[in-house]
Design brief:
Largest sheet: 9 strands, mixed
CATH architecture of the largest domain: 3-Layer(aba) Sandwich
Number of strands: 17
Distance between the termini: 18 Å
CATH class of the largest domain: Alpha Beta
Length: 358
Amino acid sequence: MAAVLLAGCGFVGSEDGDGRPSATPAAVADIACAKKGKVPGSGSTAQQNAMKYWIKQYQRACPGVQIAYNPIGSGAGVAQFLRGATAFGGSDSALKPEDVELSSKDVCPGGRAIDLPMVGGPIAIGYNLVGVDDLVLDAPTLAKIFDAQITTWNDPAIRKLNPDTKLPSIRIHPVHRSDDSGTTQNFQAYLSGAAQEVWQYPAEKTWHGRLGESAEGSSEVASVVNSTEGAIGYFELSFSAALKIDTVSIDTGAPEPVAPSPKTASAGIATAEVAGKGKDMTLKFDYATHKEGAYPIVLISYEIVCDTGNQAATLPALKSFLTYTASEEGQKPLAKIHYAPLPDSVAAEVRKVVRTLS
């Protein structure tokens, strides 16, 4: 079952049509390819650009396997997995206890569903203000903006954080996700964790802030922000990079405001602890961190699989693919496409768990 994987360790300077860097293999590495199999997955839009890269590289090395990923949002992806419609679900938040204890035992005979962290990254706060290309906000101010308590861009709270910036008097146009979204859940978790006195809504996949425009998927939120003066919204950094949308630096109380990047997100992810039990690898974040250079609005996108009870027809290919995505060859290139690779210790544990799937 050994095959040669074209490792994405090196990139040329060109880009694919969607604005992501294109990879040219710089080396080869051995991987245990499944001989055949069709592996359907669906869910998180946050990881869709990483999935595009992984699938392209994996199928070059393992042409007998077909991997398909439908970026329909975390909530819908979890629902499809729990119905048995997919081999894995992509979610930007861990499964709820009731999903594990009740629903997952039907789709995982003899086992249960587990969360495997696979890709990290910053949730960028993108904005559209002509003439303003450097904007700093903090958690309380963001919470008030997305809850319609601050409604104009020259509000005193924003001016205080940006004393040398000429801010327009136009209205703020906040944009949030309309679909159930792990990105939304992580953003609301940040707001409630770092601005608890202002944001008192639950950290759920459904948006709870007042007013604002809604759009489906990260790509649509980014599109609305890109086309609307005065708009502000949240989405993964890869979407802001593709559309060249300006992003907010966060005042965390550290010596300098922190801009979103793979490096600063990795520093933020490094503050997380494994909170899952058994083979489950759910991570818990410190959203109120003051660590220098640590971007606090981060997410981990999980692959949801059965620990036991995976479908026999897809299991070999599923294990082969997830072993690759958690490998050095799968993780190292992620920074080139605006994601944060997993810490080495976490990636190693993920690979150990993947080997035990049955």
